[in-house]
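[stage:ingest] chain + small molecule (MGD)
[stage:ingest] validated
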Amino acid sequence: MRTARGDAQHPLSRGFICPKGASFPQLVNDPDRLRRPLVRDRATGEHREVSWDEAFAAVRAGLSRVVGAHGPAVVGLYSGNPNAHTMAGGQHLPAFVRSLRTRGRFSASTVDQMPMHVACGLVFGHPGLIPVPDLDRTGYLLMLGANPAVSNGSLCTAPDFPGRLAAIRERGGKVVVVDPRRTRTATLADEHLPIRPGSDALWLFAIVNVLAAEGLVKLGRLAGQVTGAERVLELAAPFTPEAVEAACGIPAETTRRIARELAAAPRAAVYGRMGTTTVEFGATTSWLTLVLNVLTGNLDSPGGMMFGRGAHGRADRVPPGQPGTGRGWGTGRWHSRVRRLPEVMGELPVATLAEEIDTPGEGRLRALFTVAGNPALSTPDSGRLAAALTQLDFMVSVDPYLNETSRNADVVLPPTDSARVGHYDFSLGALAVRTVATYSPPVLPPDPTGMAEHDILARLTLIAQALTDPSDPSDPSASTASTAGSGGSGEAAADGVPDQAAVDAFHESLVLDALRRAVGERGSPVLGRDVAELHAQVDGASAPERLLDVALRTGHFGDAFGARPGGLRLSTLLANPHGVDLGPLEPRVPALLRTPSGTIELCPEPVVADLDRLRTVLGARPATSELTLIGRRHLRTNNSWMHNVPAMAKGRNRCTLLVHPRDADRSGVRDGEPARVTSAVGSLEVTVQVSDEVMAGVVCLPHGWGHGLAGTRMSVAAAHPGVNTNVLTDASRLDPLSGTAVLNGIPVRVTPAG
Ligand SMILES: Nc1nc2c(c(=O)[nH]1)N[C@H]1C(S)=C(S)[C@@H](COP(=O)(O)OP(=O)(O)OC[C@H]3O[C@@H](n4cnc5c(=O)[nH]c(N)nc54)[C@H](O)[C@@H]3O)O[C@H]1N2
Ligand SMILES: Nc1nc2c(c(=O)[nH]1)N[C@H]1C(S)=C(S)[C@@H](COP(=O)(O)OP(=O)(O)OC[C@H]3O[C@@H](n4cnc5c(=O)[nH]c(N)nc54)[C@H](O)[C@@H]3O)O[C@H]1N2
Ligand SMILES: [Mo]
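[stage:predict] done
[stage:export] tokens:
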């Protein structure tokens, strides 16, 4: 494979391709990419290639040693961002996570979108119900802390985002971008409002305040489906545009005008991303974006914020017209050992991972699995985490690279190239602005000596299942719905390493589990059907395809195993390689709500209880001597790991500190020269780029850099190492409702280096 092109006939992308996609062949052919498993010699620290059997025997021995001595609770797991993009991440990872029977679960969600999950969980009754801006029909887009012209859209799948923004303006609509930096997206907008980092919650509350004061609230179609709106309006009282002006840096008159524009627009959407989640008030800010969409009648309405549903999406549970049956949603079913931070969606904040490993005492994490993650670069206070990783008794990384994280692993299990496995987008599809079904079968034949990620995860699950006790009462998996793997043989060969027959049986047990769930699910098109009868009809050439066939056929658009002729199934997608267009998003309230009241519960208690914190920063005037650090993304990167692709790495140094000319003068730093940046927890040296792109008082540094460490094997990345901004981020600063780390809005000092 030498080239990758966009697909002009695809109904969602219309041929648009991101530079990262275009470089796909370089990624597949990267000579540094691992193709065989590695085992680390603890004495020398060297990794050497071994056979797959040897690697899994080493996993079994290591895990058995730790679990045998201390039980499964001391095993941790970190799952990273690419799990949202692989089929294995959706289909096989959950069973592996459950098989470990530990509460030491962490993921990239708590350095990313967790605040939005919390807001949606509380307001809609399920944390997965995240609305997306209906870009192609909106007339007014208020976008905060998002840079989709570079990021390609996040929690909003919309290829060629710039084209879609231009179309809003061509229709006579307006795009407003709120961001401390004049980003590429900001330059494509009608209006850019620079805002002081971390102050969006205040500003959004001020907009609510204006809507209330000027009688501009209209729930529209949602009238009668919302509870708590009155109370929200009361809570907004202290947050007048004048009161928040100093803290936000946005003139009160501008705030009033935006509130009026938003209320007057026939179809508007308020959309927030990283700059609204990875901040001090992440969950509150996410909640306020939902509040504004509801109060202006734009939630669940065409051209507003609507609920996506992948082609595999489940049917809504409650038929329209019937009252709600939800149990609601909450956090804190258990707490972290050291800081007593609450569990959210079954996981703990990754900002606590280092201390859970390095703080002595009963229950200290002694083993760690990482699956598609590079927490050594991507999580706060990386200096401490890097040291903590060396204190583990045992570590396994499922990763195609020997990088800053996996260099510490006793066993590295590299999944085969993504071109050798099929692709269907479970997460991104469910967040798309239009429902489109696409499946791409493997492009290249299997590598006879490689292993696909789903086969790796199946073996790990079988090994873990055999070593952990399913009857343990402290088992968190007992509270989850699925019993994945329960129908499988679970047999292991004599040396404890599962053979292919056991793996195949395990895959089929996942298929059976998915069918069992579907026949028992409210609203399911196969409710009450016979599992064996359905099982006999499942189609597909591999475990991922068979699981996809079940997901499609039992979903909202599915053929319900023949009951709805013409409905979706795997063969439909195979016959339509350019994708099947299932149309624009449709209103789904109240049927999709899972709140106990069956309404949109707009004023949840946990959010109200946290508002004291927000009130204390009201009227705060930022110290002029202080600089605030934010992050940035570049088109040719994807977090930490695409830096080894030559086409992505070439060009000028991108790991620079943006400093406003005023601050450069005050700090005595100069363009192109090194500066020292110091936070409460760390310090680094980086080249300055003086630019009025950032607002005065704000400095900006990208994440994902800091390569070239001993024991890594990424030669291209090592030649352009950059510095790791997360040595500056403070693990003690979190959004308390979601456990999400503050990555944007870190107080720093900048001085000339040397
Ligand atoms: N300061 C700061 N820090 C940040 C951010 C920020 O804006 N500022 N952004 C945060 C965000 S949004 C995120 S999502 C996190 C990301 O955090 P992580 O997910 O921890 O980091 P990535 O750099 O995405 O690392 C992905 C890893 O997966 C591996 N990988 C790639 N493809 C595959 C695959 O198919 N299978 C497997 N098993 N492995 C694969 C790569 O080699 C790499 O090791 O970083 C966060 N960190
Ligand atoms: N090219 C590229 N694309 C990517 C990635 C990548 O690394 N590179 N990563 C992917 C991942 S994992 C994710 S999660 C998405 C993220 O997608 P986005 O959220 O769209 O991308 P970011 O660049 O993180 O945008 C955050 C913006 O918030 C601004 N900001 C910082 N602090 C504040 C604040 O307090 N208030 C406001 N209003 N704005 C603030 C920043 O200046 C920045 O422009 O991108 C994805 N796409
Ligand atoms: Mo992310």
